[in-house]
Amino acid sequence: MESVVAVKGLNVWFGHAQVLSGVDIEFRQGELTALIGPSGSGKTTLLRAVNRMNDVFSGVRTEGEVALSVNGATVDAYGDRCDVARLRRTAGMVFQTPNVLPTSIRQNFTVPLRHVLGLKKSELDSRIEAALREVELWDEVKERLGAQAQTLSGGQQQRLCLARALSLEPSVLLLDEPTASLDFRATRRIEHLIVRLKESYPILAVSHSLGQTSRIADRAYVLNSGCVVETLDRHDLREPELLHRLAEDLF
Ligand SMILES: Nc1ncnc2c1ncn2[C@@H]1O[C@H](COP(=O)(O)OP(=O)(O)O)[C@@H](O)[C@H]1O
Ligand SMILES: [Mg+2]
User: Which of 117, 118, 137, 207 has the smallest count of CB within 10 Å of its CB?
Assistant: First the structure.
């Protein structure tokens, strides 16, 4: 069954500063939904609101609704009965700079798989291989799973982070500028991967690039000063003049 995430009337404050105001967005399986906007406009905060990662900061206050419909069941992320640890597994996240653990490639998986999912030793290998295959990294690393993850290239490290997120079997993916630190070739490779993954997971991805957004997104929300100021569909995203105006207005 299709999964959908709907955010309604979201307000977020850090201390006295309101950083998101009345945000309504939706993203669904089969589509890549992009968040674009200038630095400081609230893109990362919006992404983190979906899986309640903002809660780790003191002084944060969130109002509004985030509903995840997964396999026919709806999770109300800010409802009293929400299991936050489970929510964070449901909505897997990948960050701007690859955050590999300073340990082996294998342990980058075994640590979360054991601690978060409580998997047994015998269950680990097949899970790791499946995740690495899903991001097309298996052939590159299968002979050296014991090597330090930090010896991989930037693009490989980011694919490793994506594989690690996938190994925890999320239902939804949140990607925060996943290619911001990568060169052209590594960027294109991740873009292709993301386009393939959207068939299996609803994806909300922050992008720092209008070019990238027009290449891979099915829909985009433009944020400015914490508000959604524009919603672009696939057709809009292929309009050079509209993109040109956005680039002038926003960046
Ligand atoms: N943990 C935090 N504590 C206090 N302020 C924060 C925190 N995270 C983000 N902010 C503030 O919220 C605003 C939006 O930040 P962010 O969501 O990171 O924007 P973007 O990702 O679009 O660059 C900024 O003014 C930023 O300084
Ligand atoms: Mg950000």
Answer: 118
